[in-house]
Design a protein that fits this description.
This protein is of the alpha+beta class. The protein is built from 2 helices and 11 strands, in the order H-H-E-E-E-E-E-E-E-E-E-E-E.
């Protein structure tokens, strides 16, 4: 028979030495455990989904590319990033060129709906730009210089 003594959290039977438990008492306790534990395991707020786990296991992509010299170069990333940062490996992020009175942009970033002039992001498509003529508006985009070596960091 069930006991009048119950555990505080789940109200499971907490028998005394004089109690005489029956099979139905154990079955009732098992149903309570199954409901509470099963509900907890199904709780997506408390537990990570497979997609969340993948995001945390590999939260970013660091890769490199060689410039082609074209006005634009495009890359299809294996995921849609929250943020991408691109930079020329052997240069400062920006350089002032006194002879032409312009700034050479050797780095840039992009995020959904936000970017610098030389980098853009549309879904999982990353675009980097290279000025192929004179600097326009005192800016010279330098993220696809022929044979230039670049890195990009894409964050999930």
């Amino acid at each position: 028979m069930p006991t009048s003594n119950k555990t505080p959290a789940l109200s499971l039977n907490n028998w005394l030495g004089t109690d005489k438990p029956m099979r139905s008492d154990f079955t009732e306790d098992n149903l309570i455990l199954d409901s509470v534990i099963g509900g907890h395991l199904q709780d997506a707020v408390s537990h990570l989904s497979a997609a969340d786990r993948e995001k945390f296991d590999s939260p970013y992509l660091l890769d490199s590319y060689a410039g082609t010299g074209d006005a634009e170069q495009h890359f299809t990333l294996p995921f849609t990033p929250k943020f991408v940062f691109v930079f020329y490996q052997t240069r400062a992020f920006s350089e002032y060129v006194a002879k032409g009175d312009y700034t050479k942009c050797n780095a840039g970033f992009a995020a959904p709906g936000l970017s610098t002039a030389a980098v853009s992001l549309q879904g999982n498509r990353l675009t980097v730009k290279q000025t192929t003529g004179e600097a326009a508006g005192k800016l010279f985009y330098n993220l696809n210089l022929r044979d230039g070596q670049y890195f990009y960091l894409a964050v999930k």
